[in-house]
Design brief:
Blueprint lengths: L7 E12 L2 E12 L5 E5 L6 H9 L4 E3 L4 E5 L1 E7 L14 H14 L4 H17 L2 E7 L4 H14 L2 E8 L15 H16 L9 E7 L7 H14 L2 E6 L3 H11 L3 H7 L7 E5 L5 H10 L2 E4 L1 H7 L6 H6 L3 E4 L11 H17 L7 H4 L8 H16 L14 E5 L16 H11 L5 E6 L2 E4 L2
Parallel strand pairs: 1-4, 1-5, 6-7, 7-8, 8-9, 9-10, 10-11, 11-12, 12-13
Antiparallel strand pairs: 1-2, 2-3, 5-14, 14-15, 15-16
């Protein structure tokens, strides 16, 4: 007899947006998930095989039946997280970016040289993100190789899908003595060592945890380091993550140093590929957008942290209409919220502010940038499909052949701001309410690659 686990089957209302601007809702869907966590069958009510499949599923102990008011959604994708900054969430947001880094963030990140400090913080972070429905997380670690290895170990053990980078930063002019790579050689050698470690992890044969080349941002790296990291990324064909044109200070620094915008500078160093995630990108030009599109990079739109540190609103609608891969990021701890649903709302709000304008001194006709708003459905698409496309992963939607990374949102739980009236709310209304009012206590179940991480 085979010891292979039987298929898992979920019966309930499926909600996703595989195509931008298009909501698909399947009531009473039967979603079959193979032993390796792949969606292998979706039976729809009224199909020729549905009744037979339903009878068989109800005899199977692996069947999970959702209650009225519960909805099966794709897992949420967070494209930009500073893992060591978790203890700082909700603090120091009154400071300018440069001061925030030098006075608060770098001293905190330096503490991760101590694994006994790192372990409980990283464990708490991963637990909390899973509880918030984040099934795929993209993490910056620190300069510490062993602590970043530990983060990879924790993600693998807890079941979260993750892209993780050991941060490289060697520029003595911009990085403090107590927190930087002593030389570019050390940074490059330890970047290689981390990639080899993650790819050799026992139990990671499916590459659920993936390494990333991670120059913190251009100001923190010498040209020698940036060039070397570009070579490593191409040699290993791995993900790349960095900041791009985040704020006036950072954007102007790169212009002064290299004479071009971040996008063009990163491209010259070989750091723009179809596996690159550019965080923020608030100040990119149309020419930058063309370069990013040609390279097929992804952009991590971080609407909440942009409010505090970026001096500008990212033109999400323009980037989406341009055909760029755009997902969402919490930017812990530059952003004060650890959940992607809050950043969905933030993306909608930021786009409305950009379109309508914010300066009451100006006449209404002069105040905003026309055609800038994104809808709740755009925001949901960025939180799922957009993030998945940015990483080149088959997640973010509940379709055949995709990994079963999914969440169950329960609109009936007590003490919730998310309420649905069956006689008043359409399917679109319900998703809109989830985007605007959903929270951690509404996330009833979480699966990654078919493995149940939250719920029973």
């Amino acid at each position: 007899m085979s010891n292979e686990r039987k298929e898992t089957v979920i019966l309930g209302t499926l909600v996703h947006a595989p195509v931008r601007g298009e909501l698909e809702v399947i009531h009473d869907a039967l979603v079959s998930v193979s032993a390796n966590g792949e969606i292998v069958k979706i039976d729809k009510s009224g199909s020729t095989t549905y009744e037979q499949s339903l009878v068989a599923a109800r005899k199977d102990p692996q069947l999970t039946t959702l209650k009225d008011g519960q909805y099966l959604l794709p897992g949420l994708v967070d494209l930009h997280i500073h893992a060591p900054q978790w203890p700082q969430l909700g603090k120091a947001l009154d400071l300018p970016l440069y001061d925030w880094l030098q006075q608060c963030t770098f001293p905190l990140e330096a503490k991760y040289a101590d694994l006994e400090f790192a372990r409980p913080n990283y464990s708490s972070l991963v637990d909390n993100l899973i509880a918030n429905g984040t099934t795929t997380a993209t993490y910056f670690g620190t300069v510490h190789l062993e602590a970043t290895k530990l983060l990879a170990d924790i993600c693998l053990a807890k079941g979260q899908r993750a892209v993780i980078g050991r941060v490289a930063m060697d520029n003595a002019d911009e990085c403090p003595d107590f927190y930087r790579d002593p030389t570019s050689t050390v940074a490059l050698d330890e970047t290689r060592a981390f990639i080899d470690y993650v790819r050799g992890l026992s139990g990671n044969s499916a590459n659920r945890v993936m390494p990333a080349v991670t120059p913190r941002f251009i100001p923190s790296c010498t040209d020698t380091l940036l060039k070397g990291l570009g070579k490593i990324a191409h040699e290993y064909d791995c993900h790349i993550q960095t900041h791009c044109s985040e704020s006036d200070w950072e954007h102007n620094y790169v212009l002064d140093r290299h004479g071009v915008n971040d996008t063009q500078s990163l491209d010259q160093f070989g750091l723009l590929t179809d596996k690159t995630i550019l965080a923020h990108a608030n100040l990119i030009s149309d020419g930058d957008m063309s370069t990013i599109k040609q390279a097929d990079c992804g952009i991590a739109h971080c609407p909440l942290s942009n409010i505090y540190f970026s001096n500008a609103v990212f033109p999400a609608r323009r980037a989406l209409d341009f055909g760029l891969n755009v997902g969402l990021g919490t930017d812990i701890s530059g952003g004060p919220k650890a959940d992607i649903l809050s950043n969905c709302l933030g993306a909608v709000n930021a786009s409305r502010s950009l379109e309508e304008g914010v300066d009451p001194v100006l006449a209404g006709s002069e105040r905003g940038t026309a055609d800038s708003r994104v809808s709740y459905l755009d925001a949901f698409w960025m939180a799922t499909v957009g993030g998945a496309k940015s990483l080149g992963l088959k997640v973010g939607q509940l379709s055949l052949g995709y990994s079963f990374d999914a969440i169950v949102v329960d609109t009936t739980v007590a003490n919730s701001n998310l309420m649905v009236w069956s006689d008043l709310d359409s399917d679109a209304d319900i998703l809109q309410k989830i985007v605007y009012n959903g929270g951690r206590n509404n996330i009833e179940k979480v699966w990654v690659q078919g493995r149940l991480l939250k719920g029973q």
